[in-house]
């Protein structure tokens, strides 16, 4: 239920002070400092710990309360007395209280029907450091923090263009979380921008605690295992996306920005692909594509061949697989599920535990899943090899959310292979392809540029051609300014 806050600011300051104290009662961190400006009563309201008290004391109270302060007109307070760089008027008490709850200082003066918001935000913040989730060999070591203003500055440092737009919004009926929508005005896809704004305006929720909330509330298909927005901790990735006509959404209290629209080829790309020579980048992309394909179909292929299509295996290999599975009491399907489940548990434990303990659990778990499981006759050695190769190839994916989605696809293919063999795998891949073709991200096909008629966009898909061939922005993005290199 929305809280109704008094709108108008009355000329009688005592009424406003009494109203705010009742509205904000039982809050020991909210400070009401009443004082006089010559013969006028005034009050400042701020939150201890979120507002800079040194700025308030030295540049607000000291300037207004000193004896030689002579004010002929109330407007002189803002224009001639206060020595603060960021200050604005508010006409409603609701706007003033919301700004105060965000870390600003609200000042009211008796006899005025307007209030003043003084920019005094100052709270403990983590410094800029290297992002742990997206490491690169060559490139900037800066990552986003939990402070939205730091994050917008990191992006603006890379885009010194007057046409860069940083549009503020506040989401969450109770949290009033600061959100910034960033785009380059003459490049952005206008239809995507309009659709994003429409979906954000329709969000009605108590609190936005992370950018993941917005991602789930505005995505096209919430039932798809694949992310339809790109999540990143890197300001250089956001800047590169803005130069392509995409839009970034930054959320206060979150070190992750989301970029829209996102396509599957984009999610398989790494910043390293653009910071090194094109031959190396292209070879890595080809290896990455092969590895991802292998991670999806390898366990299902093993089940299909060993359970249904043993005739296609060479005789020596068939004898070797049969000998390795001798004594294993489970069929290949159960054996594969045991390994998949065990590996998922081990990975989750490593991620959730503190780092020193997590590394120990990884070693112990690897021994249990590996040598101990084989010695106990629960799984075969060939299954250990398949699980290891699947895990290694899965981790090659630069985007963690994509790898989780591929894991879901792999489980479904394992079930299909258990029922229909190779035909089940083929049917599963066809259904997956149909889903990906139908899936869109804010009107942009999810498989673009693979489904785009302009063949020029293929220069940055499976391989990356030299940068001198990147004359135009991607055609499927329908950008305004299409030329990025002359």
From TrEMBL:
The keyword Membrane applies. One of its GO terms (cellular component) is membrane. The chain crosses the membrane at residues 286-312, 332-351, 363-391, 411-434. InterPro entries: Spore_Ger, UPF0353/GerABKA_families. Signal peptide: none annotated. Pfam families: GerA. Coiled coil: none annotated. Keywords: Membrane, Transmembrane, Transmembrane helix. The keyword Membrane applies. Belongs to the GerABKA family. This is Spore germination protein.
